[in-house]
Amino acid sequence: MKSTDVLILPGWQNSGPGHWQSLWEAAYGYVRVEQHDWMRPLRGDWMMRLEEAVLWCPEPVILVAHSLGCILAAAWAAHSCNTDLVRGALLVAPADVECEALRPMLASWSPILLPSLPFRSCLVASRNDPYCVEQRARQLANAWGSRFIDCGEAGHINAESNLGMWGEGHKLLADLDRLGTEIEAPSPVSGTL
To answer: Please, which pLDDT band fits residue 4 given cuts at 50, 70 and 90?
Structure first.
């Protein structure tokens, strides 16, 4: 896996320096998809930036999404004609933008688009994520055709979760890369870290 073939999709307000996404970017040279406005995200704007980033890459990419970045990956996949340029997606701690707490701040992100993703994907969720209950994360994984991974009680799987480089997550990314040449996305399968 080349460093330029991995696109980092942070969520709302970006991923800070202690976040595993930022640590991976610094250590491995992965490419962060920069958004025009991290504080007031608009779905259409973020989708256009992702489209540009995917088209810019010389080889098919793997998406590494966190929180709102997961919802971005699904929305982009539902509209783009270039999904064949994605080998797979690691979707971590999706934000439930339809829940009462997030809907007012992220109004342009509802409803969550639920068609099956046209590429291999793995959704990692926590049992005590304040932004998405476990049952909802399982529903999203099922709708998107993603393998579901139970990460235990790891909060929002972010810097506050004290994961550091999050080696288990990087292993999942390597697995997606290794298996990403297969044509069909896998059926949803439960597993544990």
So the answer is: confident
CA-to-CA separations, 6 to 20, 45, 47, 149, in angstroms, rounded: 14, 21, 17, 20
Q: Quote the tokens at residue 66.
A: 């966190």
- DSSP state letter for 120: E
Q: At 173, list the tokens.
A: 């990314």
User: Angle at the Cα of 21 (from 15 to 96), degrees rounded to 5?
Assistant: 60
CATH number of the domain encompassing residue 65:
3.40.50.1820
pTM of the entire predicted model: 0.92
> What CA–CA distance (Å, rounded) separates 182 from 173?
15
| List of residues 6+ apart from 53 with CB closer than 8 A | 7, 31, 33
User: Structural domain tally of the chain?
Assistant: 1
Residue 71 structural domain: 3-192
Beta carbons of 129 and 101 less than 8 angstroms apart = no
Q: Dihedral sign, CA of 173, 178, 184, 188?
A: negative
Strand partners, 7: 31, 63
Q: Write the pLDDT tens digit of every residue in 122-173.
A: 999 999 999 999 999 999 999 999 999 999 999 999 999 999 999 999 999 9
Q: Quote the CA–CA distance of 160 and 163 in Å, as a whole number.
A: 8
